Amino acid sequence: MLGRSGTGSGAVASVAMRNLLQGTATLAAGTATVANTGFGSNTQYIAFVQAETAGANAGHLHVTRNSNSLVITSSNAADTRPVRWLVIRIA
């Protein structure tokens, strides 16, 4: 639960919220790079990405890490859709 209550769950919620990063990006030539210092090279994370719209050039999306950034890539280099991303840092 990510809410505050009389049982002390607020501390858990604060830690959980610090470990969530989210945003939007737009693919250009099938790729978008999201720079953020929260994506350090020693950070383990789970990343989710979803296209905001369908499109004629829609491809399959995948995410990789490059130093302090996430790279969102489509299997179709002509893909220019906007995407939403969510990262949960786990270590």
Amount of beta strand: 35-45%
What is the molecular shape?
elongated
Give the SSE order as H and E letters: HEEEEEE
| Integer average pLDDT | 79
Low-confidence stretches: 1-13
- Quantity of strands, as a count: 6
As an assembly, this protein is single chain
Report on the structure:
With 91 residues, the chain is mostly beta strands. Strands 1-6-3 form a three-stranded antiparallel sheet. The chain is built from one helix and six strands; from the N terminus they run H-E-E-E-E-E-E. It starts with 8 loop residues before the first helix and ends with a strand. The chain is elongated and about 40 Å long. Strand 4 (61-66) and strand 5 (69-74) form a beta hairpin. It has one domain.
Summarize the SSE layout with pairings.
Blueprint: H1 9-18, E1 20-26, E2 31-35, E3 45-51, E4 61-66, E5 69-74, E6 82-89
Antiparallel strand pairs: 1-6, 2-5, 3-6, 4-5
Features of the shown structure:
disordered N terminus, elongated, three-stranded antiparallel β-sheet, 91 residues, mainly beta, 6 strands
Overview in brief:
The chain has 91 residues and is mainly beta.
